[in-house]
Each structure stands twice: as C-alpha cells, then as structure tokens.
C-alpha cells in the first residue's frame, strides 16, 4: 500500500519506520532538508540496543499527496488548522488517520468530506533523535477507531506483523479518545509544571497528592468514567517512569505545547457545563504562563 505520513516529528518517524518495512511510505516534512535526508539515508529506528535503517521517501512539498492510498496526519493539534485547506482538496475516497493528543480536533473532523476517517492514539514512547532518527523508548500499542465510514471500513486498515508495534481496533472512538485525553491531562501538564520525568509523579508523595486531586477533578467532566481508571494512569507513569513527557520536551526546547488541546479542552468543557475544577484551571494557566515567560506565546 502507498502510505503518506504528514509530519516528521517523533510520531511520524515512528509510524514511517514500522510501516515502511511492509509498505511504500512517503513522509511529508515541513523542511526540505529533512525530506532529503530521509530519502537519501532512510529512517534510523533505535529500540533498546538495536538499530534498523528503513528505506523511506521524504518530500518537502505535498503536490503528490493525492496519489497515496492512506494518509496519516501525525502533526500536533495546533498545527492541524493550517493543513485543512489542503486536506479538503483530496479525493474523497482516500482514507485519513488523525493521530493527535486532546479532543479539539473532533469538531474539525466532523466537517471533513472524506468517506473514511480514522482516529488514533498511541501508547508508545518515542523521541526524535535528528531529522531521520527516532528512538522507540517503550512498547505500547496504537489504538485505532472509525470516526466516519461505518464499521466495515476498519477491515481496510493495514495491519502490521510486528510485535513491537501492535495495532488494536476500538469500537468506540469517543471512549478511546477520552481515555487518552484524561491520562494526558494529568501526566503532561504536571510533569511540565514540576519539570520531572513521568515516574516522579508517583514516587514523590507531594506530587502524587496533586496528581490525585487533578485526576478526580477531571473526572467531574467525564462522569461515565469511574475512579478506578486512575490505576491505569499510574501504570502508564510506572511503565514510562524514565520518559520525558512530550509537553515537557516541547517546553524545554522552546516550542508551543499542546496544553490548549489537552487540559484547555477540559477547562472549557467544565466552564460550559458549570463544573468547578479549580486545580485544573490553575495548572492550565500555569503552563500558559510558562509559555509566555519563555517567549513561546504572546501575552
């Protein structure tokens, strides 16, 4: 299958490396220098002490995007808006897979004319190590659900025969996205605020108290989720204890974070539904303030 991946960050490179072993993959990059490097040298995938180079094409323009049989959009949610005019010109038969944190993009997808739209979340740990290298720091799974197109559309999605990159299909896209959102809304902002790795949210008693407070507040906006889901989030922190969250990495490297798409979405939801979530509002404003302090965001 011809697969196009928009985005040359950690997630885009990780998908390109694993799918590139079995399919013809093109990575569409923002910078032509990155695209050229991927084309000439392939993607270097690191897992533990093993290295694998996967031949993949890179392109700095999206002129031939309409030739792909599946397009994976692996950019951050705040970068999605600029892609919409292009995506709306694509032939309607080309399936799209959106992999973003948060849930702000759900309203955007409702306006798309594509016949088949998938949404996905990932549980892997991945760090980009240059223009054409990615480190797979923790095996999780890729969760996929049909957003538009009917239940049989899932049969058209390409599976991989690789235990390091399992793909799991979910019947309820909303439940799948909410699960990821709640976990991200607790882990990402707190690791960024305290500038710690994931595991320290559990091992430091003071951080853990705030972790629990934020979690229980967030659940007020998602009443169908029970209190036991915190066990799954704790497990994520334990399994990725030495990982740096994507939000902390963005903040450290001077990039705009996804705070609005993650915790901002929940703060807005609380406001609309008259749910009082003061800890969530404080953490949200604190991250926004950190971005302003660093010149990442205008005042």
Could you outline the blueprint of secondary structure elements for this entry?
Layout: E1 2-6, H1 10-19, E2 24-28, H2 32-41, E3 43-47, E4 50-54, E5 57-59, E6 70-73, H3 77-80, H4 84-87, E7 96-99, H5 105-109, E8 117-122, E9 125-128, E10 133-138, E11 142-148, E12 167-170, H6 173-194, H7 200-203, H8 205-219, H9 229-239, H10 246-252, H11 260-272, H12 278-293
Parallel strand pairs: 1-2, 1-6, 2-5, 3-10, 6-7, 7-8, 11-12
Antiparallel strand pairs: 3-4, 8-11, 9-10
Helix pairs in contact: 6-8, 6-10, 6-12, 11-12
Number of helical stretches of at least 4 residues: 12
CATH architecture descriptor name of the largest domain: 3-Layer(aba) Sandwich
- What proportion of the residues form beta strands (DSSP E)? 15-25%
Number of domains: 2
Number of strands: 12
The helix/strand class is alpha/beta
Strand line-up across the major sheet: 5-2-1-6-7-8-11-12
Query: What is the class of the largest domain in the CATH system?
Result: Alpha Beta
Radius of gyration: 19 Å
Main pleated-sheet profile:
8 strands, mixed
Low-confidence stretches: none
CATH level-4 homologous superfamily of the largest domain: NAD(P)-binding Rossmann-like Domain
List SSEs in N-to-C order. EHEHEEEEHHEHEEEEEHHHHHHH
Terminal residue distance: 46 Å
- Which geometry do the CA atoms define? globular
- The name CATH uses for the topology of the largest domain is Rossmann fold
Short description:
With 299 residues, the protein is α/β, with parallel strands linked by helices.
């Amino acid at each position: 299958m011809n697969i196009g991946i928009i985005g040359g960050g950690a997630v885009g490179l990780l998908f390109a490396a694993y799918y590139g072993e079995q399919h013809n993959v093109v990575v569409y990059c923002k910078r032509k220098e990155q695209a050229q490097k991927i084309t000439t040298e392939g993607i270097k995938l690191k897992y533990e002490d093993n290295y694998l180079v996967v031949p993949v094409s890179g392109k700095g323009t999206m002129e031939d995007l309409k030739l792909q049989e599946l397009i994976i959009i692996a950019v951050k949610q705040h970068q999605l808006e600029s892609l919409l005019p292009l995506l709306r010109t694509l032939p309607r038969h080309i399936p799209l897979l959106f992999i973003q944190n948060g849930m702000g993009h759900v309203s955007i997808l409702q306006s798309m004319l594509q016949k088949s739209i998938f949404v996905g979340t990932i549980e892997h740990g991945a760090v980009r190590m240059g223009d054409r290298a990615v480190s797979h720091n923790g095996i999780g799974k890729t969760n996929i659900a049909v957003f538009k197109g009917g239940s049989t559309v899932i049969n058209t999605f390409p599976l991989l025969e690789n235990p390091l990159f399992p793909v799991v299909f979910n019947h309820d896209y909303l439940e799948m996205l909410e699960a990821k959102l709640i976990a991200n809304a607790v882990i990402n902002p707190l690791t960024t605020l305290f500038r710690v790795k994931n595991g320290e949210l559990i091992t430091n008693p003071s951080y853990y108290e705030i972790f629990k407070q934020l979690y229980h507040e967030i659940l007020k906006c998602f009443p169908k989720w029970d209190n036991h889901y915190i066990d799954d989030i704790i497990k994520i922190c334990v399994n990725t204890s030495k990982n740096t969250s994507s939000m902390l990495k963005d903040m450290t490297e001077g990039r705009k974070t996804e705070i609005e798409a993650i915790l901002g979405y929940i703060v807005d939801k609380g406001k609309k539904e008259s749910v009082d979530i003061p800890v969530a509002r404080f953490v949200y404003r604190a991250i926004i303030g950190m971005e302003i302090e660093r010149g990442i965001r205008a005042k």
